[in-house]
């Protein structure tokens, strides 16, 4: 096992990685921005160094500053967590060139799958289903209109270098498409320094399902089940659960086989996720490839809870050239787990509401896990994502997990910032959610119900 890790991230995921490092006897090093100096992860790491030379907003994207901390502290490896530089192939290459271990897949795989157009084409060449769309970047609005006419409306305009729900717009007709194209292209140029965009069919009434992969040190790729990530606002996830019991066994098997095929063909190592849309074609469910995330997912705890596996440990083992201590297979999944993202945001309109935390009381008990980045007295900064904690529950069945979620939400108290806990209380009573028959529009349904409007039942 490697001996030390620099965590190139912050908040709850930094604490999550520190926890595994401590259990394994691996020295943890945190690199933190001045805005985060008082957060728990800074105190909990074996060594913490403030990032110099960048504004707090940009600190965790400053590759040279992070590498300087790794060199100064003698960190053998760098774990990027999720977000920030976790899917930046150039940073991964710099890490390796500087003599550190990269806790993630090969930089070439990151580059391939991080380019959404290249990834679509790669998966299509494997003979797997992708949504109708452009195989090349769309250079201008006229070309976007041509592609939309072939794909059929509504369409998504997407940044080729995008991710995390950013750099995406929906267009239902040619007028909306012209505006969406200019908006996404401008956003992509500004945020990703890459103005390439593409157009693909947008499916209403779809479900967002992902396949957890783990590429092992011996070159094999295993799957660790499917997660339903269909509770979203602005195409960003709020609640995830596993297993996906609503899927017919045949479709479930085909999706898992597709994930293994993609990972194996790419020579994938470490944890990664293949994201798909599940569509209802006249009463029969099918799927199309959406994208691949070459990192640890925010929602990885639901897989951990149902498989009894520590995915961060497995990432560190792969980076060290070690195999799992016990076989990992879908047959090992047990029970049902649900994760809710506790965000500093309005529970109705989902608008950010940062602030200083004056009260923070977490739920506890059998089957309840909280991965948090904050505690009372900390300030949730508007500089970063609004995620404060992840509430994870695990039960013998989906119904038991929902009951546990209700009880845990009642015990979770946060004062100071706005918090979205009330949204989850309403969601857990939504008829479609209770039937396990909901789509990516369910969060909007909950919003409309709050406003007294008619919702889908």
User: Major sheet: order of its strands?
Assistant: 13-12-9-10-11-14-19-17
Low-confidence stretches: none
**How far is the first residue's CA from the last residue's CA?**
51 Å
Percent strand equals: 25-35%
Main sheet makeup? 8 strands, antiparallel
Domain count: the total is 3
This entry's quaternary arrangement is single chain
Reported by name, the CATH topology of the largest domain is D-amino Acid Aminotransferase, Chain A, domain 1
Helical content stands at 25-40%
Question: Would you count the extended β strands for me?
Answer: 20
The number of helical elements comes to: 15
Structural class: alpha+beta
Shape: globular
**CATH 4th-level superfamily of the largest domain:** ATP-grasp fold, B domain
CATH class of the largest domain: Alpha Beta
CATH structural architecture of the largest domain: 2-Layer Sandwich
The pLDDT mean sits at 95
Cα-based radius of gyration, to the nearest Å: 21 Å
